[in-house]
């Protein structure tokens, strides 16, 4: 996508533009996630109001668009098991249904916000907030991990160890 709000699909072999779809405002640092038939990304609409968008990967047709109550987004989203995960400047991780874009869960991360892109690995969704906290969520299940200490001291030698504590918290409805 571009700062002018246009998403492009480019043929990987020829480099030809397959389709373009515009009108999304600023697409800032948002590489799309892909599930085999659709792409998903975050964008700033008018007045920096954030939105999540899904387009048909073959045609570029708009599948859905979800506005975020006046909060801007500035990161890529992640796709896993039928869900879209995205952060926002208001400090929440949002879980959206990939089929229709409905917000299924809004999980508080930090009052400082987050523009970190969630990552998916082995069924876990990982995200960091502005305070340096790292959160892990098992798929769409609302069990979260907070890893502490947040940072390792610079004086630590390569062969030394750092103790980390894991706090498992139910952050939603189980």
Topology at a glance:
Layout lengths: L6 E4 L6 E5 L11 E2 L3 E7 L5 E7 L5 E6 L10 E3 L2 E5 L4 E6 L5 E6 L10 E3 L2 E5 L5 E5 L4 E6 L16 E6 L4
Antiparallel strand pairs: 1-2, 3-4, 4-5, 5-6, 7-8, 8-9, 9-10, 11-12, 12-13, 13-14, 14-15
Helical percentage: under 10%
Give me the number of helical elements.
0
Poorly predicted sequence stretches spanning 5 or more consecutive residues = none
Q: Taking Cα atoms only, what radius of gyration do you get, to the nearest Å?
A: 18 Å
Provide mean pLDDT, rounded. Answer: 78
**How many β-strands, per DSSP?**
15
**Which geometry do the CA atoms define?**
globular
Give the amount of beta strand, in percent.
35-45%
Strand order of the largest sheet: 11-12-13-14-15
Please give the largest β-sheet. Answer: 5 strands, antiparallel
Protein traits:
single chain; 174 residues; mainly beta; five-stranded antiparallel beta sheet; 15 strands
What does the model show?
Strands 11-12-13-14-15 form a 5-stranded antiparallel sheet, with no helix packed on it. The protein has a 4-stranded antiparallel sheet with strand order 3-4-5-6, with no helix packed on it. β5 and β6 form a beta hairpin. The model has no long low-confidence stretch (mean pLDDT about 80). By secondary structure, the chain is mainly β.
Compose a concise summary of this entry.
The chain has 174 residues and is mainly beta.
């Amino acid at each position: 996508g571009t700062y002018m709000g246009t998403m492009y699909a480019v043929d990987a072999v020829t480099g030809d533009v397959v389709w373009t779809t515009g009108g999304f405002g600023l697409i800032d640092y948002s590489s799309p996630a892909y599930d085999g038939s659709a792409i998903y990304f975050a964008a700033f609409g008018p007045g920096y109001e954030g939105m999540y968008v899904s387009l048909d990967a073959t045609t570029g047709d708009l599948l859905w668009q979800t506005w975020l109550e006046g909060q801007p987004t500035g990161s890529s989203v992640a796709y896993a098991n039928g869900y879209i995960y995205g952060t926002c400047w208001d400090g929440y991780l949002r879980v959206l249904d990939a089929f229709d874009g409905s917000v299924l869960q809004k999980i508080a991360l930090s009052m400082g916000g987050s523009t970190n892109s969630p990552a998916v690995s082995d069924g876990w969704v990982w995200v960091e907030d502005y305070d340096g906290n790292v959160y892990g969520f098992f798929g769409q299940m609302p069990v979260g991990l907070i890893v502490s200490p947040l940072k390792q001291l610079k004086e630590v030698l390569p062969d030394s160890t750092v103790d980390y504590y894991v706090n498992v918290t139910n952050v939603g409805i189980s």
